């Protein structure tokens, strides 16, 4: 047991230093700056007009966009699992794709698609007249984009639920005389309720913490939310505002946890754990099939193709607003983004090695942690799991503030602080993505028979030998999926790094915001196109390896 | 030496007490079966022996060395115990040969010696031709032999078997039972076999421990379990046993007794120290009941007779009041109809010891 105890201690140190201690430091700075509890300061700060306004906006935006995402995602899941729609695989890929595109790129694409200078609507004569206020630079615009952005999250959760409903339950209702709509309303949807609310919880967490969309649309629209407020105050005042921002971050964390608790309560007793070999029969849409399919594809055209082609269109002209034709087309922006613009090149290089290092550390750690969580009991395992889940569920900006606080002072052994260096971002990534890496790996563990490990133990193998010889070969596909997920998410990461980047260390994710703020819309569009391209390549690669993966590990695979 | 001493073992999961003062003394080289319904704690007992679970109280010693107690715990990898898992737990990514060789490799045996040993062991279980196959390409019986070869290669002195036949179809079972017997003869290891199937336990083991709700009810050779059950639960569990009331028990001193069963005198077996008492409980099996001609015997009403080939399995209501359900086997050919009155006799029976009779 000596080897196992050593491993457990190492895991506790890892999770403790990267998740528990920084978050505790955040709570300390928020509530007890200088060591004493000052109720007047807290009341003063939370009663501030701008803070109240940002809080109300945050709640309204996240609730409304969650509702939109839930309705859209549930409808899409029902369409895909319950009807005889054709070309389903392709449609699912298209529907889930926006989830993989960094939110700041999505926001940029939509802004360009619907601006008066739209490269797509303009030539069609549908663009807004010049001088009109951009429709997306508004509260409604933020709710709309966040809702669409998070709909795939709900879709994935509801689809998984629907696939677990045994067909016999539906057949029993039909035998009692229930027909089409009644069966869906009375049997199918109630059984999928757990999945619907689980999806809604994910959408809520994702909306409330989505910096990319809230910043890209909210800052020009002067719709302030907690995230953008924290970002802008820290940008203008620097570390002197840290304690106050820690309090706001704590408020944001509280709202997140409240939202999750509320959806969990609404969806309680939702998981019926019914499994059967036979899935629900697909119902024929009959004469409606054509129109329904038409609407489904129209949705993809509007929500995926239109904004993305606007992005490509903008990236292909020299100046923002120029019409795209044979005379104006240029690949200069791409050339600049790839080869000439030093800032972008360095940011990309930084992001690349940061992401690779994160993957290289997190995958072995997750394999070891998954072992403890799956096959060992006890409160230590539970605390480790909770801490990693919390660091993942909380908006990235909270981890960002926590990391600044934690690393601001000089470290005891090294003598210098890490603040402003790449290492803070690295630490934040490790903290943020542990749960993301863990999830597919836990799924992999669930498929490994425990006896395989025990048999190796009886053969005399210690914990490290067992992980290497027995667990890893069986877990390899899931570990690869985890690596791809972490890579895709971290390479374009914005929520955490936007706070932690400095002149010495910038990542590619926030670059789009900086470029757009600096007025280089065409260059920003080119960078966005390259990010989408990278995502598509990675998704394609993962599909090639997909046959060896357990079901449901890759969200974009039907 | 590989004798096993389990002393007053207690184990709880949360508030559920799974093992309750379990004590067993097993001699080196014995073949022991632990028999009990699912959920009786027998798998937990095996996991305690293998070292996967820690004890709350009591101790386990293997070959005189204490391996488990609340104070000390030798991890599974250092117990030298082999386990044949229910679904064999063969590593799917390794070939048959590598599965067998893994433990030797971990122990640091050099490759030439290891290869020789693997070849020898695979030859013993007649799997030499399949050394390069993957477990997925093997039949159920071949997988079991790989699992056994793994124990043979490690020269495990103690081999624990966790319901190894539970997932197999009936035709395979008989052959595989023989396989275990041969393995036992060849290796001389102490075998500890967990099962819920009494036929398996009685056929394989030199002694059987009957378990129920975390307690050992009786630990005895198969024929003693069958003929002299220690309590009603064991009597009811083994060989479709029945227990009914008897009165006016009169031991004759040589392990035999007379008593009145269902209003008729019967000759019974009992413990040597048995005392005369007015009430007793008698255990017997369907084979102890016989249909007799005439009216001298226990009157019974036929409820149902089912044709089973060599005999008719007959359910009757017997006794003076006709309210005691009994089952007996009547040799075919015979014809019985529902409601027919017959006379039966109890030819043999065992008087349950007093402490268990309540």
The CATH topology of the largest domain in chain A: MetI-like fold
The string of secondary-structure elements of chain A, in order, is HHHHHHHHHHHHHHHHHHHHHHHH
Distance between the termini of chain B: 41 Å
What's the SSE pattern of chain B?
EEEHEEEHHHEHEHEEHHEEEEEEEEEEH
**Count of DSSP strands of chain B:** 20
Biggest sheet features of chain B: 6 strands, mixed
CATH architecture field of the largest domain in chain A: Orthogonal Bundle
Radius of gyration of chain B, whole Å: 25 Å
Multimerization state: heterodimer
What is the number of E strands of chain A?
A: 0
Give the mean pLDDT of chain B: 89
- CATH architectural name of the largest domain in chain B: 3-Layer(aba) Sandwich
Q: How many structural domains are formed by the residues of chain B? A: 2
Overview of this protein structure:
Chain A is mainly alpha-helical. Chain A has helices at residues 2-31, 39-47, 49-82, 88-100, 103-113, 121-124, 139-164, 167-175, 180-191, 193-208, 211-221, 226-237, 242-266, 289-315, 332-340, 342-375, 379-393, 396-408, 422-447, 450-458, 463-491, 497-500, 511-517, 521-544. In chain A, 47% of the residues are buried. Chain B has 2 domains: 4-232, P-loop containing nucleotide triphosphate hydrolases (Rossmann fold); 240-357, OB fold (Dihydrolipoamide Acetyltransferase, E2P) (Beta Barrel), CATH 2.40.50.140. Chain B is built from 9 helices and 20 strands. In chain B, α2 packs parallel to α4 (140-153). The longest helix of chain B is centred in the middle third of the chain and has 18 residues, at 170-187. The chains are: A mainly alpha (558), B alpha+beta (358).
């Amino acid at each position: 047991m000596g080897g196992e105890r050593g491993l457990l201690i190492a895991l506790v140190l890892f999770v403790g230093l990267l998740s528990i201690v920084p978050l505790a430091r955040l709570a300390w700075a928020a509530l007890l700056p200088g060591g004493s509890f000052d109720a007047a300061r807290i009341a003063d700060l939370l009663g501030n007009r701008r803070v109240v306004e940002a809080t109300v906006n945050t709640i309204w935006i996240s609730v409304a966009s969650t509702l939109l995402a839930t309705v859209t995602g549930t409808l899409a899941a029902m369409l895909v699992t319950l009807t005889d729609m054709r070309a389903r695989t392709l449609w699912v890929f298209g529907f889930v794709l926006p989830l993989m595109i960094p939110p700041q790129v999505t926001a940029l694409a939509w802004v360009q698609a619907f601006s008066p200078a739209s490269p797509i609507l303009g030539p069609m004569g549908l663009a807004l007249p010049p001088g009109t206020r951009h429709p997306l630079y508004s509260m409604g615009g933020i709710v709309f984009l966040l809702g669409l952005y998070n709909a795939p999250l709900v879709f994935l959760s509801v689809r998984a639920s629907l696939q677990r409903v045994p067909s016999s339950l539906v057949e029993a209702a039909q035998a009692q005389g229930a027909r089409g709509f009644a069966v869906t309303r009375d049997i199918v949807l109630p059984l999928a309720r757990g999945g619907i609310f689980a999806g809604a919880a994910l959408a809520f967490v994702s909306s409330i913490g989505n910096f990319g969309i809230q910043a890209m649309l909210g800052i020009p629209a002067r719709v302030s939310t907690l995230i953008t407020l924290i970002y802008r105050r820290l940008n203008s005042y620097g570390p002197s505002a840290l304690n106050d921002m820690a309090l706001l971050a704590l408020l944001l964390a509280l709202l997140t946890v409240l939202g999750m608790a509320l959806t969990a309560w609404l969806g309680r007793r939702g998981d019926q754990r019914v499994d059967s070999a036979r899935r629900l029969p697909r119902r024929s849409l009959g004469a409606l099939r054509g129109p329904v399919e038409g609407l489904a594809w129209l949705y993809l055209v509007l929500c995926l193709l239109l904004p993305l082609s606007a992005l490509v269109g903008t990236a292909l002209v020299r100046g923002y607003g120029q019409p795209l034709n044979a005379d104006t087309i240029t690949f200069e922006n791409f050339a600049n983004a790839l080869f000439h613009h030093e800032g972008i090149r360095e940011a990309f290089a930084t992001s690349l090695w940061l992401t690779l290092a994160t993957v290289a550390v997190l995958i072995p750690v997750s394999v070891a942690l998954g072992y403890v969580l799956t096959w060992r009991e006890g409160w230590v395992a539970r605390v480790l799991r909770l801490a990693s889940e919390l660091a993942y569920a909380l908006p990235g900006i909270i981890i960002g503030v926590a990391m600044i606080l934690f690393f601001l002072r000089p470290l005891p052994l090294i003598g210098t602080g890490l603040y402003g260096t790449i290492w803070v971002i690295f630490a934040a990534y490790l903290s943020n993505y542990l749960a993301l890496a863990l999830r597919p790996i836990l799924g992999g563990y669930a498929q490994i028979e425990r006896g395989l490990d025990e048999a190796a133990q009886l053969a005399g193998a210690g914990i490290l030998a067992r992980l290497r010889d027995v667990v890893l070969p069986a877990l390899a596909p899931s570990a690869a999926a985890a690596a791809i997920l972490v890579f895709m998410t971290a390479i374009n990461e914005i929520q955490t790094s936007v706070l932690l980047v400095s002149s010495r260390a910038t990542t590619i994710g926030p670059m789009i915001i900086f470029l757009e703020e600096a007025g280089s819309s065409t260059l920003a569009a080119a960078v966005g196109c390259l990010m989408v391209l990278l995502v598509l390549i990675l998704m394609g690669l993962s599909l090639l390896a997909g046959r060896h993966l357990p079901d449901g590990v890759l969200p974009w695979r039907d | 030496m590989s004798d096993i001493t389990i002393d007053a073992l207690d184990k709880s999961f949360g508030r559920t007490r799974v093992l309750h003062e379990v004590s067993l003394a097993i001699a080196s080289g014995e073949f022991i079966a632990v028999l009990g319904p699912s959920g009786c704690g027998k798998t937990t007992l095996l996991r305690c022996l293998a070292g996967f679970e820690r004890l709350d109280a009591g101790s386990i010693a293997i070959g005189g060395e204490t391996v488990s107690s609340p104070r000390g715990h030798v991890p599974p990898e250092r117990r030298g115990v082999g386990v044949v898992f229910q679904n064999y737990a063969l590593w799917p990514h390794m070939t048959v040969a590598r599965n067998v060789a893994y433990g030797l490799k971990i122990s640091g045996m050099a490759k030439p010696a290891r290869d020789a040993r693997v070849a020898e062991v695979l030859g013993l279980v007649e799997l030499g031709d399949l050394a390069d196959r993957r477990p997925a390409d093997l039949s159920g019986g071949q997988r079991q032999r790989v699992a056994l070869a793994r124990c043979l290669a490690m020269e495990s002195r103690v081999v624990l078997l966790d319901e190894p036949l539970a997932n197999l179809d009936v035709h395979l079972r008989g052959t595989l039972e023989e396989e275990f017997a041969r393995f036992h003869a060849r290796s001389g290891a102490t075998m500890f076999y967990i099962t819920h199937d009494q036929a398996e336990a009685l056929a394989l083991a030199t002694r059987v421990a009957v378990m129920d709700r975390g307690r050992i009810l009786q630990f005895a050779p198969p024929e003693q379990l069958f003929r002299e059950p220690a309590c009603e639960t064991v009597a009811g569990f083994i060989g479709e046993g029945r227990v009914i009331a008897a009165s006016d028990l009169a031991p004759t001193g040589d392990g035999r007794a007379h008593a009145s069963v269902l209003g008729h005198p019967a000759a019974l077996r009992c413990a040597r120290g048995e005392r005369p008492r007015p009430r007793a409980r008698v255990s017997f099996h369907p084979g102890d009941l016989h249909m007799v001609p005439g009216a001298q015997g226990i009157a019974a009403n036929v409820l149902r007779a089912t044709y089973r080939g060599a005999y008719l399995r007959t359910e009757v209501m017997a006794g003076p009041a006709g309210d005691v359900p009994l089952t007996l086997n009547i040799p075919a050919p015979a014809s019985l109809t529902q409601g027919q009155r017959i006379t039966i006799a109890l030819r043999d029976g065992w008087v349950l010891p007093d402490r268990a009779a309540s």
